[in-house]
Specification:
With about 270 residues, the chain is mainly α. The chain has two domains: about 110 residues; about 140 residues, no CATH class.
């Protein structure tokens, strides 16, 4: 039997995409329905318009292919270049709905498989517990924002992965560089003087600390931004304890970056 969304899942997905505050606009819905060759029920409420189009499409085709296509088209980041503040709230709402269907929209707007949750409280409980434990540890505030239900519903993996991305984003913001991965680390912390220094570098011990910190960040990027970006999610199950330890490591990196300085360059 072909895979289909349940009625409840369709209602949740349509509700997220048609949300009054953060969802698609009426003209966008009209264009996306036409692009995906669905039947447009007309200008009714946004969520009802999307829901009815989805139901008709799934009943007609017996599968959810066009619905998935609609979501992919709707969540292309390039659509939000002029209004980037719209993208993340809609992605967050949509991922809560998709968590029950075992799907997840990545930061790049791609639909990927995820471990399905069975109840909304389950997804929210995981997020609250993780955040509470990390707050007790005194984890950096820039890390706590990744303890969201739509991320930790997927066995905490995406919360850690997105938190690691935030380290690279902070490095780029401080330096003005556009690189990623080991190249970003080398250009940021290497050289004489480096673009960013975590201490005065006035002794061999401090210079060794600078090199060690660069290796720490490089290794963290290597774990989460290289193999995991291309391998299926199932190959790396992550427990809550693992997530807490790894997010604490990311917190340490954030704190050292916050306390760092940019040496004068000749």
């Amino acid at each position: 039997m072909k895979r289909q969304f349940s009625q409840a899942e369709l209602e949740a997905i349509a509700g997220a995409l048609g949300d009054t505050d953060s969802g698609l606009k009426g003209t966008e819905i009209e264009m996306l329905i036409a692009t995906c060759r669905m039947t447009d029920p007309g200008p009714i409420t946004k969520r009802d318009r999307i829901y009815n189009a989805f139901v008709h499409s799934q009943n007609q085709s017996g599968d959810r292919i066009r619905i998935l296509g609609f979501i992919r088209h709707a969540m292309k980041p390039a659509r939000y270049v002029r209004f980037p503040e719209r993208f993340e709230p809609m992605r967050a709402n949509l991922n809560v709905a998709l968590a029950f269907a075992g799907l997840f929209v990545s930061e790049a707007g791609e639909l990927t498989p995820a471990a399905a949750v069975t109840t909304l409280p389950e997804a929210q409980r995981r997020a609250r517990e993780l955040r509470s434990d990390l707050e007790t540890r005194g984890v950096h505030s820039d890390v706590l924002e990744f303890c969201r239900a739509e991320l930790v519903a997927d066995d905490y993996f995406h919360a850690v992965q997105e938190a690691v991305k935030s380290v690279a984003a902070k490095m780029r913001a401080k330096t003005g560089l556009t690189d990623d991965g080991s190249t970003l680390v080398d250009r940021t912390f290497g050289g004489e003087p480096p673009m960013i220094a975590i201490n005065s570098r006035s002794s061999e011990s401090e210079r060794g600390e600078q090199r060690g910190f660069a290796n720490l960040v490089r290794g963290t990027f290597g774990m989460f931004r290289n193999p995991t970006a291309h391998e299926p999610r199932i190959h790396w199950p992550m427990s809550k304890s693992d997530a807490e330890d790894l997010l604490s490591l990311v917190s340490l990196i954030h704190r050292r970056l916050d306390a760092s300085h940019m040496p004068a360059r000749g």
